[in-house]
Amino acid sequence: DGGITQSPKYLFRKEGQNVTLSCEQNLNHDAMYWYRQDPGQGLRLIYYSQIVNDFQKGDIAEGYSVSREKKESFPLTVTSAQKNPTAFYLCASSRPGQNYEQYFGPGTRLTVT
Amino acid sequence: AQSVSQHNHHVILSEAASLELGCNYSYGGTVNLFWYVQYPGQHLQLLLKYFSGDPLVKGIKGFEAEFIKSKFSFNLRKPSVQWSDTAEYFCAVRGRAAGNKLTFGGGTRVLVKP
């Protein structure tokens, strides 16, 4: 089955620690995205990547970092600089170009205390 | 910059009632429009999309949406809801000049009472 996997489903960290969220897809999609979902705010774009070894900041990139060394993988690091990291994080992928929708993974719920 | 507004944050209705969820966007150029649904405990999935052509779009599970360009709207409708339509619904817009970037509305939580 093709799809997007995110692990783990739940993640707990202490304040001040960096944490990396995993996102893997086997859909052979070139483009990948990271969103953050907060109640009442919908999904907000953190980072996106149109192709391997290239990525761009989204609307709320501060305190986050990404890498795209492989087509199928797009890990997100939530750094200690992110002021409000507790949230539900969603990864998505799509084919390149204007005519394709994004497919979403199951998400990771991060709690920082 | 593009933005999306969903007017209702929460909607509660009974089975067999009709549903209409409002979505307005702000973007001056050509747009692609989407409705996604997130059922409890499940992935966000696409309900329907509009790229061009007939402004009345039909999606999965009996949903449809109408693109009204003059009103910058893309409202979602279903004539008769079921308990299984309980979910959170998100409208999203992609401006043609914005590349592949999607902008989402704040979501509407729909509770269908049996």
Q: What is this structure, in a nutshell?
A:
The complex is a heterodimer of chains A (113) and B (114). With 113 residues, chain A is mainly β.
- Helix and strand succession of chain B? EEEEEEEEEEEE
Strand % of chain A is over 45%
Q: Give the distance, in angstroms, between the N- and C-terminal Cα atoms of chain B.
A: 41 Å
Query: Can you tell me the overall shape of chain B?
Result: globular
Q: How many helices of chain B does DSSP assign?
A: 0
Task: Indicate the mean pLDDT of chain A.
Answer: 93
* Rg for CA atoms of chain A: 13 Å
- What's the count of strands of chain A? 11
Structural class of chain B: mainly beta
Number of helices of chain A: 0
Query: Approximately how much helix is present in the residues of chain A?
Result: under 10%
What percent of residues of chain B adopt helix (DSSP H or I)?
A: under 10%
Major sheet summary line of chain A: 7 strands, mixed
Number of DSSP strand runs of chain B = 12
| Helix and strand run of chain A | EEEEEEEEEEE
